[in-house]
Write a structure and sequence with these properties.
- The chain is mainly β and 145 residues long.
- 0% of the residues lie in helices and 51% in strands.
- The protein contains no helices and eleven strands.
- The strands form two sheets. Strands 3, 5, 6, 8, 9, 10 and 11 form a seven-stranded mixed β-sheet that branches.
- The protein starts with a strand and ends in a 12-residue tail after the last strand.
- 28% of the residues are buried.
């Protein structure tokens, strides 16, 4: 059994491991289940998204994407974990990663403009554990989310 998240309309991303923690360069594998989109012409992609969060600031950037052919409303995917930046949390800024499933065109029962339908957070770091930059503080790190 893999690690999964269930979000909108029971569509889901199922990762190849639990927790979703990877070393740089490692393959991030999984599958998507779009059974909630039954009867729709599904055009979708899996995205690897870097999240930057800071005091009063946030930004998401798609760093990799793979179009998926949905056969039987399920499809496998593989993305490469980038060499950097690592997942980390600091006092002023944090960097995290997620795998996102996105629709690429209008669906009769989906969002009017396509868009994201589910996502799952992952960790990318040399020890498969989020790096904590809290000087002198003891805080547990994430080994996946």
């Amino acid at each position: 059994m893999g690690w999964e998240t269930i979000v909108m309309d029971e569509s889901r991303i199922i990762l190849d491991r639990r927790p979703g923690a990877y070393v740089p360069g490692e393959a991030i594998r999984g599958r998507v289940d779009l059974s909630a989109m039954q009867g729709c012409a599904v055009v979708a992609e899996v995205q690897l998204v870097r999240q930057i969060r800071g005091k009063g600031h946030g930004a998401d950037e798609i760093v990799a994407r793979r179009g998926i052919d949905v056969v039987g409303l399920s499809a496998s995917f593989e993305l490469a974990a980038p060499a950097s930046p690592y997942s980390f949390s600091g006092r002023l800024i944090s960097v995290g990663w997620m795998v996102r499933l996105a629709l690429l065109r209008d669906m009769p029962t989906g969002p009017a403009d396509g868009g994201m339908i589910c996502e799952v957070e992952i960790v990318i770091a040399p020890r498969r554990s989020e790096i904590l930059l809290f000087a002198g503080e003891q805080r547990p790190g994430r080994t996946g989310v």
